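Page 37, continued from 36.
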């Protein structure tokens, strides 16, 4: 018979600074894009997760990289248009 695994944590782990990374793909958000001579900043996006619980609409904002923000936004627009067409 195996013993249950015990893990110990501290409250300090709850307050560690969160690395800024895309919530969808995990890419770091403050990474600069470099080409031969230039370094440019890629603006980060933000997504809002909405859900309904206990009679209250709740919103949680999550960071997204530019590519994921565009992809998720276009998918949402496409689904919205499809629902509009279907009545
Ligand atoms: Zn991403």
């Amino acid at each position: 018979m195996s013993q249950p695994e015990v893990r110990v944590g501290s409250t300090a782990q709850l307050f560690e600074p969160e690395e800024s990374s895309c919530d969808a793909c995990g890419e770091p958000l403050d990474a600069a894009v470099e080409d031969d001579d230039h370094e440019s900043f890629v603006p980060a996006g933000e997504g809002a997760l909405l859900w309904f619980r206990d009679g209250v609409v709740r919103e949680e904002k999550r960071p997204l990289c530019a590519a994921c923000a565009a992809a998720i936004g276009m998918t949402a627009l496409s689904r919205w248009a499809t629902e509009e067409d279907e009545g």
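Residues 18-86 form one domain. Flag for discussion at group meeting. Strands lie at 33-34, 39-40, 45-53, 56-64.
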